[in-house]
Design brief:
This protein is an all-alpha fold. It has one domain. The protein is built from twelve helices and no strands. Helix 5 runs antiparallel to helix 7 and helix 5 runs antiparallel to helix 9. The chain is globular, with a radius of gyration of 24 Å. The N terminus is likely disordered.
C-alpha cells in the first residue's frame, strides 16, 4: 500500500511539473502561414528571456573595459577628444561650420554623443551575436536575449555620456528648456533606427564577416554626410544629401529638443520613426526565422 501511494504521488507531481513546462510543437509548415501565432511566440519569448538578457548584460558590462586602467572613463574620454579636435579645426578656420544656435563646443559634443549612440546601436547587436556563436550552437534559448543585452549596454553607455553633455551645457550656459523632456524620444528613435538596420543585416553578417567590416567603413562615411559637427545646410548638393539621409531628422530634431532650438525637421522625424517601427517588426521576423538555420549551419 505504501508503494502504491508513493507511485501515485510521483505521478501527480510529474503531471504538475509537465503542466508548468512550455510545450513546443515542431511543424514542417512555414510560421508565416500563421502570423498571429508567430507574433505571439515572438513577444512571449521576448518576455521569457528577460532574466537571461539581464545576465548577458551584466557579463557584457563587466567585460567592456576589462584589463584597462581608465575603465568607464573611456566612454567620456573619446567624445571629449573628438570634440576638442573639431573645435580646434573650426577655431583655426581649417573648416568652417557656419553659425550655430549654441556655443560650438556644446553643439559638436551633442551631435557626437547622439551619433555614437546610433552607431553603437547599429554595430553592437551584430558584434554580440558574433561573439555568442559558441553559445548559440550549444544551448537552446530565445535569441532575442542577445539583442536585449546589447541594447541595454548601448543605453547605459549613452546614459553615462549624458552626464558629460549636461556638464558642458552648464559650463557654456546652454539654457535647459521644457523641450528637453522630449529628447528621450529622439534618443530612443535613433537607437531603434540603428537596431533596425542591424536586424536586417544580421543574417548576412552571420554568414560573411565582410558585412561587419563594411559596416565600419559605412558608418565612418555616414558620419560626414550627417550634420553631426555642422548645422544642416540650406542649399546645394550637401543640402540634398543631408535631406535624403534618414539619420538627419532624427539627430537634428533630438539636438533641437536638447538645446531648445526651433524644430526644422519634425516631419522627417515622424516619417523615419514610423518607417523604423514597421521595418523593425519585419527585421525581427527575419531574424527569428533565419537564426535557427544560421545556427545549424555554423554548428555543422
Amino acid at each position: 500500500m505504501r508503494h502504491d501511494s508513493q507511485l501515485t504521488l510521483d505521478t501527480d507531481s510529474d503531471r504538475e511539473i509537465g503542466e508548468e513546462l512550455p510545450e513546443t510543437v515542431y511543424s514542417p509548415e512555414s510560421q508565416l502561414l500563421n502570423p498571429r501565432r508567430l507574433l505571439g511566440r515572438m513577444f512571449g519569448d521576448l518576455k521569457a528571456c528577460r532574466f537571461l538578457a539581464w545576465r548577458l548584460f551584466v557579463r557584457n558590462m563587466a567585460a567592456q573595459h576589462r584589463q584597462t586602467v581608465l575603465g568607464y572613463l573611456w566612454l567620456l574620454l573619446i567624445p571629449v577628444v573628438q570634440t576638442l579636435v573639431w573645435v580646434f579645426l573650426n577655431s583655426q578656420k581649417i573648416i568652417n561650420v557656419g553659425v550655430t544656435d549654441i556655443p560650438y563646443p556644446a553643439f559638436v559634443l551633442t551631435g557626437t554623443l547622439l551619433w555614437q549612440g546610433f552607431a553603437e546601436a547599429l554595430q553592437s547587436p551584430i558584434q554580440r551575436v558574433q561573439e555568442s556563436k559558441a553559445m548559440l550552437t550549444k544551448i537552446h534559448f530565445p535569441h532575442e536575449a542577445i539583442l536585449l543585452a546589447a541594447m541595454g549596454q548601448v543605453m547605459v553607455n549613452f546614459g553615462i555620456r549624458l552626464v558629460l553633455m549636461f556638464a558642458v551645457y552648464l559650463w557654456f550656459g546652454v539654457p535647459l528648456t521644457t523641450s528637453i523632456l522630449l529628447a528621450p524620444l529622439g534618443i530612443l528613435a535613433m537607437m531603434a533606427f540603428g537596431m533596425m538596420i542591424s536586424l536586417l543585416l544580421m543574417p548576412l553578417a552571420m554568414l560573411y564577416g565582410d558585412v561587419q567590416r563594411m559596416l565600419v567603413v559605412a558608418v565612418s562615411i555616414w558620419f560626414f554626410v550627417t550634420p553631426v559637427i555642422y548645422p544642416a545646410p540650406d542649399g546645394g548638393l550637401a543640402a540634398l544629401v543631408t535631406k535624403l539621409n534618414p539619420v538627419t531628422p532624427l539627430l537634428v530634431t533630438t539636438r533641437q529638443w536638447l538645446t531648445g532650438g526651433d524644430l526644422t525637421h519634425l516631419g522627417g522625424f515622424i516619417f523615419v520613426v514610423v518607417a523604423t517601427l514597421i521595418l523593425s517588426i519585419f527585421g525581427w521576423i527575419v531574424y527569428r526565422l533565419a537564426m535557427p538555420h544560421l545556427v545549424e549551419r555554423i554548428g555543422s
